Amino acid sequence: MPSLFPDPTAAPATWINAHCDGGARGNPGPAGYGAHITDDAGHVIAELSEFLGFKTNNFAEYSGLLGCLQWALDHHHTHLRVVSDSELMVKQIQGKYKVNSPDLRPLWEEARRRIGKLQGFQITHALRHKNKDADRLANDAMDRGMKRAPADRDAAKPSPASPSPAPPAAKPAAMLRGFTRDGAIHLLGGATLPDGVFVKIIVE
Known about the structure:
- This protein is an alpha/beta fold.
- It contains 5 helices and 7 strands.
- Strands 3-2-1-4-5 form a 5-stranded mixed beta sheet. It has a two-stranded antiparallel sheet with strand order 6-7.
C-alpha cells in the first residue's frame, strides 16, 4: 500500500482525480461503469465507459474503481484520488468494512494489488448528485449493451420543465333517432351500433 507518511523532502506529487460509478439495471442485470478523470487543474484527461454484461451493482462499482486504477497505471500516473458514491466499496477499500461477499472478495483483492503499485492513493465517498459525470458514463455503457440510445433513456424520464400532456378530449356523443319495440331499440335510416356501446334514450 502507498505510504501514509510520504518523504517530506520529495518533490510535490502530481495527482489525478477520478470520479467513478457503476450500476446494474435489475441487480443483477445489464451492468456498466463510467469514470471521469481529471488532472489536478480540473482538465479532463480521460472518460471511461464499459458495458459489463449481466452483473450486480456492487460488481459494477468495483469494476469502475479497477478501471480507474488500471488507467492510472497504464498512463504512468503515480498518485490517484478516487470519488465514488458507493459507500460499501469505499469503506471496504478503506478497511472500515469487512468484505464478506465471495463475489466481491476477488475484486477487492485485485483493487488492493493495483493500489499497492501507486505511490499515493485516496478514496472518498460522495453523494450521487456530486458524481453526475461518472453516472452519465455508466448509463451510456448500459445503454450500449442494451442496444438503447441515450435519447430513448432520456425520453422515458418526465421533464420537470415540460407540462404534462393534456388528456385527449372526449368524443362528442352522437345523436341518433329511433324507437323501441318489444324491448329492442330500432334506429331510423338503417343506422347500426357496434356491440358494447352505451346509449341514452330520451322519450319524445
